[in-house]
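PT: before anyone asks, these are the final sequences, not the draft ones from last week. 943 residues across everything. Please model them as a single complex and drop the result in this thread when it's through.
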Amino acid sequence: MTIQRLTGTSVRRVEEPRLITGQGRYVDDVALPGMLHAAFVRSTIAHGLIRSIDTAAAAAMPGVRAVLSADDVADQIQTLAPNAAPGLFLPKFTALASGRVRVVGEPVAVVVATTRAQAEDAADAVQIDYDPLDVVIDIDAALAADAETLFPEHGSNVVFHSKHTYGNTAAALAGAVHIVTERFVQHRHANVPMEGRAIVADYHLGSGKLEVHASHQAPHALRAMLSSVLGIPASAVRVVCGDIGGGFGQKGGVGREEIVVAATARVLGVPVKWIEDRSENLIAAGQARDERLEVTAGIDHEGRLVALQVQMTIDTGAYPQLGFPASGYLNIIRALMPSAYRLTNYDFEGTAVVTNKATYVPYRGPWEVETWVRERLFDVLARVAGIDPVEFRLRNLWSAAELPRPSVTGAELIDITQRETLVEACQAVDYDAFLVEQAAARGDARYLGIGFANFIEPAPVMPSLLAAMGFTAAPRTPQEARIRLELDGSVSVFTSQQPHGQSHQTTLSQLVADELGMPIERIRVVAGDTDVTPFNMVGTGGSRAATLASGAVIGAASRVRQRLLRVVSNLWEIDPSDLELAGDGTINALGVPDRSISIAEIAKRTYANGSLANDDGAPGIEERFAYISGEGTWSQSTHCCIVEVDTTTGFVQIRRYVVVEDCGRMINPAIVEGQVRGGVAQGIGAVLFEHAVYGDDGQFLTSTLMDYLLPTSMDIPRIEVIHHHSDPDDDVPFRGVGEGGAIGAPAALTNAIENALEPFAVAIREQYLPPYRILELCGVIETET
Amino acid sequence: MTVDPTAIVDVRLTVNSAVRQATVPARTTAAGLLRDHLGLTGTHTACEHGVCGSCTILVDGASARSCLMFAAQLDGCAVTTVEGLATDGELNDLQSACLETHAFQCGFCTPGVLIVATELLAQNPSADEAEIREGLAGNACRCTGYESIVEAVLRARR
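LR: through. Structure below.
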């Protein structure tokens, strides 16, 4: 029986002291002897053929050591081949553009110089001549019959198309009482981690070893990619990640620039640093969520959803990410959209196109549009049916008696608590009282609105969802942890997670401290070093740590515990069942007051006399464990947002924001709440502030934080987080919370805004709603086309 | 106007109560001086055009964006960076409050937020939540949604 002292409590963050004293170690803090600095020459046009590249002037500038373009590194960097996926066209392309550019900001050449300033000066002096091609700027342009094709070898800008049919939507729609057809537009925005991408690459000519410091979410994936494209054995590539200034999905794939920098370090035989600046990050690091969905839904006379048809098109930008395949977004959105609702007739047609825009990358809850469109649609349907939106949802959620069961797409709905979270959200905001207040305020020409959003999110992804997405082999992702008892009696925990703000050092320490009955100060969590941390291609992403990393460290710690008990049992000739871990780092004999030994003393003895712990005489104790999660690993939430919309200024004030979430048991409530609030802030930002905008010529118009607006402390309200406590019947009852906030917020907020503007009969079918757009929708100003 | 890339300047200043001096290219920013020449990497640059606030330092007691200042402008000044907030390894009240409220996540915006909050509390020791939120509005945090940071500053008023 494990003593639960720390698990479930808001233990202070282990990470915090170094971060608040300036002692964090980010990539730009790494300085190696002789280190040079790289700057990229980027395409200034959206689409064109490269006629010539003149590097002579740049090469002659002060401090410049090398100016390299695709031809110069052709023998160093193999052609890039993104992860394949069934039915998905994937072009072959080079790390530095070769022959053709397809997006503004595409890296065409790299300059390496003694200082960053010198490298940037010289980058400006590289002359590139282009023959412009027609620009394909959005979905309609990509699909046009006479469209320029980005990849002539493919012959079309459509890179993926799929059709799935569940049940019989045509028959169901024929019997529907109301049918609604709508088009929903999800605007492109971006992850915007505070620290951009960053890398220091160091190639040792003598040993042939490449050592890389990187700001990355998946160090083993970066190692594998660098190994394969540079032709360096994986064992000779070491990726080290220190503190990371956020990622939100953007740093899970491998950047072309990272590959190029590693190659330059090898060519020059000296360390090379590249620190992405903010404009580069906004232009070239990847953007997200650029989608359009045409939806037809039918309901019966009781407001029950009888059929849903979805045609979704995703604008994936010019190049595939070296990471998550674009078809994966369509597949997971299709698989998740029915959520926990009673839907049996469902068609989904998915299309992915390429355009002359930045690469589409995963962003915190990459399937967010399924929640936004569904929950937006439900408010529309509720109004058509003349039913309250909450009642509409309650009527359409699977009932307790009907669960557990698979969703229409096959995702196993287990431990679903959406009814409870929805009802609790209504109680928390006193929904009935709000409706009275809203009616009164309208009499004073004040426009209050309320919006709800329900969703279940895979945290982590479960086998049935993978199968629903079309992974016939259903690859499950076991996660390994290793734990070593150190000579001084402390414990080192090696995780494959790559935390970048998620506080895994704290949460995993809590679990191990409890399992081993030790003070948390004696636990050290080691992440981000491919020489020592367990292999995993994902690292941190997909809200997986709470279940998978926890399961792995609990398993390994449990084995260490058994070993400790066995050593003491042998020392004292006492049965292990008569021993207890006291919780203060000692082991006691039950019922024998003076019989006590510290884990530190055990450690000392097992290193001095290996045979104490190991039959083969090896010193110390080290254990490993691989954990695989099963079904039922949903996190689920109801978001409720109350706004007041000023129809004179277009300003949306969020008066209240409530999240009722069920993430199973919590390891650290304060960390859970921090994740939820941070996600909600990003979702609010998406609706009110953030938009990655391109001109018709493909120029990127929001390349600074003065144009691409982030929400501030004035914009994000207090976010009330209410935990719906459930206790899954599972050895590892913790569920991820990294993504949910960002998934639910756009739906709840846009629903609230439309509800507020009900007197104006405003239909909100696009997600980006800055003040000018609110005024356009209300008819206060003319709509700009 | 262009800066001669080969020009150099001597800068003598006080940083976190210690006298420091450096000879740097004239176009070196204040952030560059601190990070690359004085070894104080606690100050972070996240946008380099004065918007996000991560690089904020105190110059003679007043907050300044170190990415928008030249190193030469610090000559003769007294500078405080995030490394100067703790005294002899003891966290100050603001830092201790940050521990209590789980104030930060990734830590990248943190140095600038702490410096701005330090100035705010010095100027208005009884600031209320609205004043704190307004005071921090020039510092972007992408992780927290700000509540935990605001809560820390509220607690640090003691």
